[in-house]
């Protein structure tokens, strides 16, 4: 979401009708009439797209590099190192030419991920293997789109903002090369003005995605928003404001505002500009600015053509409403409205949403507004399950909401910059963010990853990333690396230091970290970042491994944080026998793993060899309370990295599966992280016709401290939670299976707390549909999504947890199924398929309303021999 800019979500085709000016080349005079405030137009709709797996053109990054590097100049500090555009132009490229006929190309809207809707690659020698999600992310993609400009655009700067294109993006306008940006996770701006003309303009964007470029699913294509900003030549620069709060208390807050004004005019004369900024409360309910509560003193400056000018202003706000993470605090926000005026004309209006909070990083954890906040965080990759990398606000919001229901209060954006909108959501929901930029530096993890361009691009990428994200109150930690090979290399500490220096230059207010899995307390690398960020180290990895006290002894006053913890693995609803009696064990084919079906037991005791069960991590945290908290690997399952079964398509690490169905682990985390929720959760399901008479352990996750389990009314014993011996669950390991009903009654402090039951079900008899958070209306804006869950139920309405009936989805009315899923990491049916087998009794359909049409949408789920389910929605246009 962008704030307060005059937003037009529809594509600018509407302007076409206004445009009768024939292609006057560069009809953008210096002394143009007043142009008013900025206009930020979405360019998301109506692209022509084509992809090739062989080389379709003569373009390559290495030959285009001299023309691409100048795009980075604003983010390179040493002016001598900035590139100058060569005097000659690069060779013409057919696909970039205005007269190229692209009618046969596919019509797509962005955000677009060309790979996610295609069939999966199966097998051991797949073109794209398990690590990258078995989807065809590789190849060259071209996107072409017309932009109409008319007389009112004359004299303006025309700025193309690409929020994310995977990867090696290159941009042409009217056949002429504009610039580019290789890192696929970066957001960047290019100035189209010198290449634009009134009338029809042809924009062409090329992306190039290599195989072996990532350890997880990267997505492919223009997978985030694209905007055209039309604004006076004198305007607030790209991500050109920065608001920090110095002294913060409930009584007052001092605010410092930096505004960078840029004058893109080629005239040598200076423009006199008055810069003023008002502060308004941000009203979360309406999503708009509310009452004005303060202002920064206005400043008059003169900015030469082609120059930039930095304006500093400070003010004090009385009785500020502070931003803080939920549930301990409230995420209050403000919005700063900056106006540039000259000779009575408004040149630009630019809005910056921000929050006021004080953060202290201590040897005993992080304090927000004076209060210790234990980090109950998760790692999240950027994909949105079956939607792939194509960003969607509603899908991301659902991910965060479910995490928050679990008691999660923090997200690490592993291992790359998230979308802008994800940070907006975190600001609004009150979720702390550890904002991370790189998975590799100079040394590779994969043949074609970021190490290829690290030396040229780490500085501009890092500076652009921080300037983009530093107004978000949710961002409390910058991470400039993850498990980089440099941890123990000779120059590793020096590289880390140079990256940290860049971060601290761009933002001295926040602390930095790096996720380290093998730099020990005595490695020079470890001391560089402000926060000791540990991946798996410390939580009890095994004999000889460094522990939290080792790091504490060496760095007594530094904050120590588990930047990655646990890496527990499981497949939702799958229980494998026998069950280990340990509370944490490495998965293997004979222990917790089922290599034939490629599933991992959901008793939630199994982890990868470098990880630990959730409970083992909890125990280490309870032993060493100075640790600031953890980011569990991972909150949601993600595409790629299907450890331990590489033939699968998606991960086993998630607490929530790829479709959004919580695994049992969800309730274990909830019992610790959200302890006021009265809950009890029983596992496994109780349909074991072949286990009658056999030992079938029953485990319960609950925020209570005592529990009694009954099987068919017979007590299986009372248990107290044995936290001191490292068990954060109740476990009855000697229960002998007989069909019927399990019931658990839990207590807290001697009082009844919560009950749960699990019954042996009958045969599947029908399907039952429900919507996420019971929402039944959907905005017909082409972007909003509704998530429909289908459960296979018996006659009593109990979910038949082991059923896998084939379900067919259909839609009547102005809606469509975007994708379906079931969270099964081995399901190789392409995501858009309306046919999806239930997995663990559940399946998901993601529905969108057709843009602009309102009315009733009926989604029907049917399966052979079962009563169908119907979910009726209303599309609102
Ligand atoms: C870590 C790594 C993550 C992920 C995880 C799986 O070592 O940083 O990206 O691969 O392991 O356990």
Short description:
By secondary structure, the chain is mainly beta. Helix 4 (454-469) links the parallel strand 26 (432-436) and strand 27 (475-482).
Can you describe what's shown?
10% of the residues lie in helices and 37% in strands. Strand 21 and strand 22 form a beta hairpin. The longest helix has 16 residues, at 454-469. It folds into five domains: 10-231, Galactose-binding domain-like (Jelly Rolls, Sandwich), CATH 2.60.120.260; 235-354, Immunoglobulins (Immunoglobulin-like, Sandwich), CATH 2.60.40.10; 372-567 and 609-639, TIM Barrel (Alpha-Beta Barrel); 680-759, Sandwich (Immunoglobulin-like); 766-876, Sandwich (Immunoglobulin-like), CATH 2.60.40. The chain is globular and about 90 Å long. It is mostly beta strands. The protein has eight helices and 51 strands. Helix 2 packs parallel to helix 3 and helix 4 (454-469) packs parallel to helix 5. The strands form 13 sheets. Strands 24-25-26-27-28-29-30-35 form an eight-stranded parallel barrel, surrounded by five helices. A six-stranded antiparallel beta sheet has the order 4-3-5-11-8-9, with no helix packed on it. A five-stranded mixed beta sheet has the order 1-2-13-6-10, with no helix packed on it. Residues 1-35 have low confidence and may be disordered. Bound molecules: beta-D-galactopyranose. Beta-D-galactopyranose (GAL) binds next to loops. Residues 693-754 form the DUF4982 domain. GO terms for molecular function: hydrolase activity, hydrolyzing O-glycosyl compounds.
